[in-house]
Amino acid sequence: MKATAKAHTNIALIKYWGKRNEAIILPTNNSLSLTLDGYYTTTTVEFDESLSQDQFMLDEQIASGEQYSRVTAFLDIIRQMAGKQLFANVTSVNEVPTAAGFASSASGFAALAAAGSKAIGLHLSEKELSRLTRRGSGSACRSIYGGFAEWEMGMREDGEDSYAIPIAPANYWDIRVAAVVLSATKKSVSSRAGMRRTVETSPFFQGWLDSISYDLAEIKQGIKARDFQKVGEIAEANCMKMHATTLGAKPPFTYWHDTTLVVMQKVWEMRSQGIPVYFTIDAGPNVKVLYLPEHEAYIEQTLRELQGVTDIRLSKSGQGITYI
Ligand code: 2P0
């Protein structure tokens, strides 16, 4: 009744932004991501008849509050699926530095779903595992797969058709991502709250939704042809549209800081000099820069010299779920 799984985080190139059902996490649009090799969570789950409640150790500390309640609520789903009323010992170790601005919830829930479902004796297919993982955190359902993955939003109210599918494995194409760490630390609107406010109040939200099918079709063509310029252009434009929805919200908000714009402008400047380099930004101020290996040294050096940039973390395409 014990299992250990490792899952990597992912960066969305076509963003998940908006829910049609918050309780079971159903999105308003498909999204597409690249799983990253450097950032992962390793989780062990052991169901134990002698326990009277779940225990959750995160990075060698006893977790409480929202972190604990999200884990127990997720274990409840696993218990219900298995028809077993057993509590569990959960131990998670994150190798997702929060400073780099990657969500540990993606790797965290993917690892928890994989370890938890295996430990309790469920034999889930990858599709079933992705669908389960979605209930913990939406973006996590894409981390079941390595390389490029697409989360199909589905149409059903019960979420049975909302899960990720693999698009191309990690070794298909060596695309690199540099996470630009900024010194700014001001706490921003959480992605859950930001999504909700945007869906409910932004007149730009419909425009965002209307643009998704074109962006998805184009980026998938770009991936198929290994056309970096096409993939980069679409990913950057999609990110800009997502962030534009927040400016139209009531009250308006943005995840960008002054240094966010400095990095964006530097990427545009390098591009004007003929270097194929693009960016994407999630629900935070940090910028993720996309490039090909041959430009790594120059891009890293250029970004490091910017004022307000404290670190650059380089990453490659990563693997899907593994069991240890
Ligand atoms: C994404 N983000 O596609 C988008 C882009 C942030 C910006 O998924 O409420 O933590 O747990 O489903 O997955 C962040 O939202 O939200 C996110 P929940 P999640 O990666």
From TrEMBL:
InterPro entries: GHMP_kinase_C_sf, Mev_decarb, Mev_diP_decarb, MVD-like_N, Mvd1_C, Ribosomal_Su5_D2-typ_SF, Ribsml_uS5_D2-typ_fold_subgr. Residues 7-164 form the Diphosphomevalonate decarboxylase-like N-terminal domain. One of its GO terms (biological process) is isopentenyl diphosphate biosynthetic process, mevalonate pathway. Residues 180-303 form the Mvd1 C-terminal domain. GO terms for cellular component: cytosol. Keywords: ATP-binding, Lipid biosynthesis, Lipid metabolism, Lyase, Nucleotide-binding. The keyword tRNA processing does not apply. One of its GO terms (molecular function) is diphosphomevalonate decarboxylase activity. It is an enzyme of class 4 (lyase). Its EC number is 4.1.1.33. PANTHER family: DIPHOSPHOMEVALONATE DECARBOXYLASE (PTHR10977:SF3). Belongs to the diphosphomevalonate decarboxylase family. This is diphosphomevalonate decarboxylase. The lineage of its organism: Bacteria, Bacillati, Bacillota, Bacilli, Bacillales.
